[in-house]
Design a protein that fits this description.
alpha+beta; NADH Oxidase; 4-stranded antiparallel beta sheet; 4 strands; 13% strand
Length: 176
C-alpha cells in the first residue's frame, strides 16, 4: 500500500523539479543566463530555518521567525538567485549609472536585467506550482539566510526561496 504522505512527498519533489526547469527556461534579457537554481531538501531546510531564526533574533524581526517555522512544513524548497553580472550594454542607465562599465565599478549593486530575469523565472516557477496545486510562497527571508550561509556560492547576489508542500491548507499563508 502506498500512503498519501509518500505520494504527496514524491509529487512535491517532482513539481519542484518541473519548477526548476520552468525557471531555467524562462526568457532572459539578451538571452544571457545569470540565474542560479537549486532544490533544498529537509536537512538544507533545517539549516536555512536555523539561520533565519538567527537573523530574526539579531534584527528583532519577528517575520523571520514566523517564516522559519512555516518553512519547516515544506519537504522541498526551490532556491532561485541572480548573479550581478552586467549585460555589457553601451547605453542603459536603469541601475542609476550611465552604462555597464560604470556599474561594474560598484559590484554590490545588481543589474536591473538580472533581477528582472529572476522575477520572470520566479513567476514561471510558481505558475507550475499553481497548475499542479502545490502550496507555495515566495520568501525573501529565505534568500537572506541562504546568502549568509553561502549555499549557492559567492555569485548568488539576490536570492529568493519558495517552500513547497501539498496539504489540505497552505501552511505558508496561515500566519500567526
Amino acid at each position: 500500500m502506498i500512503t498519501e504522505n509518500e505520494i504527496s512527498r514524491q509529487t512535491v519533489r517532482n513539481i519542484a523539479e518541473k519548477m526548476l526547469v520552468a525557471a531555467r527556461t524562462a526568457p532572459k534579457a539578451r538571452g544571457v543566463d545569470n540565474l542560479i537554481l537549486a532544490i533544498a531538501e529537509k536537512d538544507d531546510i533545517l539549516e536555512i530555518s536555523k539561520k533565519m531564526k538567527e537573523i530574526g533574533n539579531r534584527a528583532n524581526a519577528a517575520f523571520f521567525l514566523r517564516d522559519a517555522e512555516n518553512m519547516l512544513l515544506a519537504p522541498y524548497m526551490l532556491l532561485l538567485a541572480a548573479k550581478i553580472n552586467t549585460l555589457g550594454l553601451p547605453v542603459c542607465s536603469l541601475c542609476g549609472f550611465d552604462n555597464c562599465e560604470e556599474k561594474k565599478k560598484r559590484p554590490a549593486i545588481p543589474c536591473v536585467f538580472n533581477t528582472g530575469d529572476l522575477g520572470i523565472a520566479i513567476g514561471s516557477a510558481v505558475s507550475v506550482a499553481a497548475a499542479h496545486h502545490i502550496d507555495n510562497r515566495v520568501m525573501y527571508t529565505v534568500g537572506m539566510a541562504v546568502k549568509e550561509l553561502g549555499l549557492l556560492g559567492e555569485e548568488a547576489a539576490v536570492i529568493y526561496g519558495i517552500p513547497l508542500s501539498a496539504t489540505s491548507k497552505n501552511p505558508f499563508f496561515d500566519r500567526k
